[in-house]
Amino acid sequence: MNKDQFWESIDTVIVAYPDHDRESHMNIIIEKLLNYSLDDIVDWQMMLEEYCNAAYRPEVWSAGQVLGADYTGEGFIDFACWLVSRGKEAYMDALRDPATMFAIPLNGESPNFKQFRFTAYNAYDAKLFHTDPMMSGNLFKAMADHTLAPQTVEAIRQEIPPCSVFAQSWQRRLNPGASDVKEP
After folding, report:
1. 67-126 per-position pLDDT tens digit
2. pLDDT of 17-73, one tens digit each?
């Protein structure tokens, strides 16, 4: 699976079912993932983690807290999952300008979506059961023996908008020897 297929699996569901709640969107994404191989489902999970990690920025976290996201390490993961679950455009816009998140409708829900972390896990289990009910294993075991293709990781990192100047200054303070901070 590539990054475009990852985002398509999320974006097409949001567009096709705009009035559904986020759990319904997640369940439809699980159904879509069942059409992919077990390796592709593992890739989907690894891409989710890449995108969640890329959102780990002070300005994004601060805006999330204002929206009502849980302000703990675990809470940020749930918030980042919510942000990814809103689709590629909302996600990328939020990384460019966190204030754009205030335009994302919450529909009475919090900007924390812990269950979204388990989308691929649920799809993997269902696919494994349908493939061979006697086979044992789970997504996390499969991830231990699987790596995302280097070109996929690079493609993801290339499309991520650079950190704001504010975030870059903090990254330099926290990591004075780091030279991989992108300039805007």
Report:
1. 988 877 678 899 999 999 999 999 999 999 999 999 998 888 889 999 999 999 999 999
2. 887 888 899 999 999 999 999 999 999 999 999 999 999 998 998 999 999 888 776
Report d(CA 36, CA 52) in Å as an integer.
22
- Alpha-carbon Rg for the chain, nearest whole angstrom, is 17
Write the DSSP assignment of the chain as a string of letters: --HHHHHHHHHHHHHH-TTS-HHHHHHHHHHHHTTS-HHHHHHHHHHHHHHHHHT--HHHHHHHHHHT---SHHHHHHHHHHHHHT-HHHHHHHHH-GGGGGGS--TT--S--GGGGGHHHHHHHHHHHHH-TT----HHHHHHT----HHHHHHHHHHSPPPPHHHHHHHHHH-TT---PPP-
Q: Nearest to residue 6, comparing CAs of 38, 51, 54? A: 51
Chain Cα centroid distance, residue 53: 8
Please give the structure tokens belonging to residue 105. Answer: 């409708």
Do residues 44 and 33 make contact, with C-beta atoms less than 8 angstroms apart?
Answer: yes
pTM for this entry: 0.85
